[in-house]
Amino acid sequence: MAPVPPGVRLLASFNKDQWYRALTFFLTFLLYTSFHLSRKPISIVKSELHKNCSAFGGQGPSSLLLRPDMDCSWKPFDKKNYKELLGTMDYSFLCAYAVGMYLSGIIGERLPIRLYLTVGMLSSGFFTCLFGMGYIYNIHSLSFYIFVQVANGLVQTTGWPSVVTCIGNWFGKGRRGLIMGLWNSHTSVGNILGSLIAAYWVSSNWGLSFIIPGLIIMAMGVVCFLFLIEHPNDLRSIHAQNLPPGVQSVPAKCWSGANGHTQVYLQYKHHKNQGCDTELLLPQDDACIPLQPVMVVKSGAEPSAISFMGALRIPGVVEFSLCLLFAKLVSYTFLFWLPLYITKAAHLDAKRAGDLSTLFDVGGIVGGVLAGVISDKLGKRATTCAVMLLLAAPTLYGFSMISQFGLGPTIGMLLVSGALVNGPYALITTAVSADLGTHKSLKGNARALSTVTAIIDGTGSVG
């Protein structure tokens, strides 16, 4: 008999629970990657919406007076106040995102996460494509683009509380910083892919820079509907369908458990010709249970979803929310404006600037994992965030100075800045949010995780 290949032995060593954990990890990773992938194109397209027209006329600005028909910018962003107009679109998205996030966490606690997330992804994909349709149908109305940004900001709030709740349900506190540091790299991976996809079409057809990411997030919404498992307990129906021959399930019975909670058990009943090996102390009309492990399908009475004020009273929620406010302020400044800054400062075209801006997110991946590992080993999430943010301040100042000395120093500072800014950002929005959402003051009520996550991330979006 041939020996079993080592790779197969490795795969066989994992039990079903571990496979489901891996599925949830990678699926939620891909789901939120698509959210950021669809959020990134606006920063790449900005340099295309308003160009330096003198570079295209060949005769300087005076030629534009003689040839008013030559318009290299996209109306209405061809005016002198184009920066304010572009900033208004960012503000519209983030304001809607911040307001919607506070509501989304509360709603998400009360609806099936899989369906809630699916609807949000399909809607976000639609509005992302709609922005790109502005190029296809030659739309030059500022109100149209602001409406799309507001609508997209609202529906994108369905993503973060949902995926953090799912990952928190499947992974406990052991090595949570490392696991979520690796998992949270989806933010940077989404930004990188979004930058590359948008940059590919930005100079030829910037509408596709939005339409392609929009179609991707819609496709991932379908995958979410088909495969996402919100909680390990959701698998009980599959186990009930796979009972051994001769065993059938009967309706669950409830007994009083510890601390006044209720424990619900799935009971098994043999055929009439089979004896009963084990009986629980129940009334006579209850079915006996065979000598097989009794599967607990639910423990504890269904807890009620926490209120907004109740979530605020959890120790640490307000403090970390304010911390994220300033960290996300810097992170999203880079997210929305870095490509345009590189275009103006380094005199690069939109595609090269978009490619170069991905280095900030590459540094963010390293910083997120590093922050998670350090916080796990020290057991001090707040200290880790504080030190990295204190180091980020002089680094950002150095970036503004060193970027004038050429491409090499700029690349180095982009990597370091990304690590120090996105490290605390990643730690607060993942491991810290999960820790606070399962805080001991909640006494086992896990239905606060979505609300806590939404409050923290919503406050960050205010920044």
Largest beta-sheet characterization: 3 strands, antiparallel
Strand order, main sheet: write it out. Answer: 1-2-3
CATH superfamily of the largest domain: MFS general substrate transporter like domains
Assembly state (oligomeric): single chain
Quantity of strands, as a count:
3
Q: What top-tier CATH class of the largest domain fits best?
A: Mainly Alpha
Could you explain how this protein is built, in words?
This protein has 463 residues and is mainly alpha-helical. It is built from 19 helices and three strands. It has helices at 6-12, 16-39, 41-49, 54-57, 62-66, 82-108, 113-136, 142-155, 159-170, 176-183, 186-201, 208-227, 236-241, 308-312, 317-346, 350-378, 381-402, 407-437, 449-462; strands at 247-256, 262-270, 296-299. A hairpin with a 5-residue loop joins strand 1 (247-256) and strand 2 (262-270). Helix 3 runs parallel beside helix 15. It starts with 5 loop residues before the first helix and ends with a helix.
Topology (elements, then pairings):
Blueprint lengths: L5 H7 L3 H24 L1 H9 L4 H4 L4 H5 L15 H27 L4 H24 L5 H14 L3 H12 L5 H8 L2 H16 L6 H20 L8 H6 L5 E10 L5 E9 L25 E4 L8 H5 L4 H30 L3 H29 L2 H22 L4 H31 L11 H14 L1
Antiparallel strand pairs: 1-2, 2-3
